[in-house]
Amino acid sequence: MTAYGRGLSRAMGASPHPAWRRALSDTRGRLKPEYDAVVVGAGHNGLVAAAYLQRFGVNTAVFERRHVIGGAAVTEEIIPGFKFSRASYLLSLLRPQIFSELELKKHGLRLHLRNPYSFTPMLEEGAGGKVPRSLLLGTNMAENQKQIAQFSRKDAQAFPKYEAFMDRLALAIDPLLDSAPVDLEAFQRGSLLQRLKSLSTLKPLWQAGCILGAQLPLYYQVLTASAAKVLDQWFESEPLKATLATDAVIGAMTNPYIPGSGYVLLHHVMGSLEGIRGAWGYVQGGMGALSDAIASSATAHGVSIFTEKTVAKVQVSSGGRVQGVVLQDGSEVRSKVVLSNASPQITFLKLTPQEWLPEEFVERIAQLDTQSPVTKINVAVNRLPDFLAAPNTPRGQPLPHHQCSIHLNCEDTLLVHRAFEDALDGLPSKRPLIELCIPSSLDPTLAPPGCHVVSLFTQYTPYTLAGGKAWDEQQRNAYADRVFDCIEAYAPGFKGSVVGRDILTPPDLERVFGLPGGNVFHCAMSLDQLYFARPVPLHSGYRSPLRGLYLCGSGAHPGGGVMGAAGRNAAHVVFRDLRSM
C-alpha cells in the first residue's frame, strides 16, 4: 500500500480545529511501541470501533494512510471556498445507538433533515406552455398521494400501504444489524460451551420472524425478487416505480430487473434521524464533520489517531497469532489484536502474510464481487440549478425541491435498464442515472454566498472501458460533459453556472479511498454476500482465520453505507474475545 497524492484538496471539518485534531497534535510524535488494539484505517467504522474499545478499557490506536480521517466520509475543499462531501454525501443509516452512546451531538455533530426528500422532474414537451410534471415526495403522506395522483390515482391509494409494508420489513431486519450473524463455525466445530454461547446469536433471527409472522413468505419474495417485480405488484406509473427503483440499484452494478435487487429497496426506509424513521439528511460541514465528531468522542476517552501512517503488514507470531503491525516507515507497533477497517481484499490479500490463511479462504476473498458502476462528480456552481419543472424564484433562493435527492433520467425503469446495459458493453451510459444533491441549499457554510456545491452520484460507468482501455483525462471529461448535457436538458443554464468540478471514476474511487473496484460497499450488497456470507461463509462474525485479526469495515456484516454497525459490532466481539484470553 502506498500513500496517495493529495492533489489540490484540503481536509475540512465542521470547524477549523476539531477536538480530535487538537488531541492528535498532543499525541503526534508520541507513537507508543505497544497498544492493546490497533485499528487499520480511520474510516467511520474504524473510528466507531476504536471509540467503543477505548470505552471498554482497551487502549487503542488508529492508523490512517491519508492526511485526513473519515475514509469515504470526508469533507474536502477541492475548489477554493467550496467544501465537498467528496464520496459519501447523505446520512440516515448510522445506528441510533452510536449517536447516543458516543454522544456525537456533544462532540459537535449537527444535522439538516430533508423534507421533502425526493424530486423527480420529467422531460416533457410542455403542451400549451405548461410546466413539465415532476414527482415530489416527503414526510407528508397526503401531499405524497397528491403528487403521485398526477400519474396514477390507483398508485396514490397504494403508496401508504407500500410504505407500511416496507417499514415492517425494515423493523424486522433492524435487530440483525446490531449483532454478529449466527456463528455457524461454533455450531459446527466448537466445544459444547461455544455451541451454547452461539445460541444467543439466534435471538435477532427469532425476533425478525416474530415481527413478520405469517407474512414471512411475502417478505421473502421482496428479498429475493427483482425490484421491478416487487414494484410492479404495487404500482403502475413509471415515474413512481423508477424513482423508488433508484434505491434498489444505487451504487450497485445491477438493474431493477435482476433478482435480488428488491432487497436494497429497503434502504430508503431502513434508517432514521432524530427519531424519524426513514429520514435522510445532510451533516453540517459535510460528511467529514461526522467523522470528526466520532474521532472527538474517541480521543476524549484516550484513543490515539495517527494520519499519514500507512500500515504495510500485519505481524504474526510463530505460534500463529497476531502480534501487531508494521508501518510503511518501518516502525513496529505491537498489539494483542488488529481490527481492519480496510476492505477484505486489502486486509487479507495485501496486509496479511498469506502463509497464515487457509488457501480456500484466500480464493474466496479474491473472488468477491466488487464491480461498481459509480462515477462521483463534485461540482461548484455560482447559482442554483433552475429546473423547467420547478422554476427558481427571481432572487434564486433555495426552494423545497433543492434540498432533495433529485433523480434525473428516471422517468422510466427501462431507462435505468438501458443505462446498465451500456456499461455491460464497456461503455459509460448514454443517458446515465443521476442522483443530484445540493447540500448547500440547507447548509450555507459549504460555499461562498450565492454559490452552491452539487453532488452528482452517477451510474453506470465500467471500471475498465471497452477494449480493455483505462480511463484517462479525456475519457473522464467526456463522460462528465455527457452528464452535464443531461442536467442541462432538465435545468437550462446549468453548464454556464459551473465554476469547477472533481471527477471520480471507479478507478479513482479505488485509488483515493481504497475502495476495491471503486465499490462504495467494499463488495457487492448481493444476497450471496450478505449476513452469513459477508465477506465469505463461516467468517461473517468479524473474526478471521488468523487469531487476533478482525474485520470491522463495510466488507463485514451488515455491509456498506454510513452505518457504523460493523465497527460497533466488531468492537463488542473483540472485547469479548479479549476478556476470555
Structure characteristics:
alpha/beta; 20 helices
Detailed description of the structure:
The chain is an alpha/beta fold and 581 residues long. Helices cover 35% and strands 17% of the residues. It contains 20 helices and 20 strands. It has helices at 19-27, 44-55, 96-101, 141-148, 153-177, 184-189, 192-198, 203-212, 216-224, 227-234, 238-249, 267-270, 287-300, 344-351, 359-366, 413-424, 473-490, 494-497, 506-513, 565-580, and strands at 34-40, 60-63, 75-79, 82-85, 111-113, 118-121, 134-137, 272-273, 276-277, 281-283, 304-306, 311-316, 322-327, 332-340, 374-381, 405-408, 433-437, 452-459, 498-504, 549-551. Strands 1, 2, 11, 12, 13, 14 and 20 form a seven-stranded mixed sheet that branches. A seven-stranded mixed sheet has the order 7-6-16-17-18-15-19, with helices on both faces. Helix 5 packs antiparallel against helix 8 (203-212). It starts with 18 loop residues before the first helix and ends with a helix. Residues 1-16 and 25-29 have low confidence and may be disordered. Its main location: mitochondrion.
Give the arrangement of secondary structure elements.
Elements: H1 19-27, E1 34-40, H2 44-55, E2 60-63, E3 75-79, E4 82-85, H3 96-101, E5 111-113, E6 118-121, E7 134-137, H4 141-148, H5 153-177, H6 184-189, H7 192-198, H8 203-212, H9 216-224, H10 227-234, H11 238-249, H12 267-270, E8 272-273, E9 276-277, E10 281-283, H13 287-300, E11 304-306, E12 311-316, E13 322-327, E14 332-340, H14 344-351, H15 359-366, E15 374-381, E16 405-408, H16 413-424, E17 433-437, E18 452-459, H17 473-490, H18 494-497, E19 498-504, H19 506-513, E20 549-551, H20 565-580
Parallel strand pairs: 1-2, 1-14, 2-11, 6-16, 14-20
Antiparallel strand pairs: 3-4, 5-10, 6-7, 8-9, 12-13, 13-14, 15-18, 15-19, 16-17, 17-18
Helix pairs in contact: 1-13, 2-13, 2-20, 4-5, 5-8, 10-11
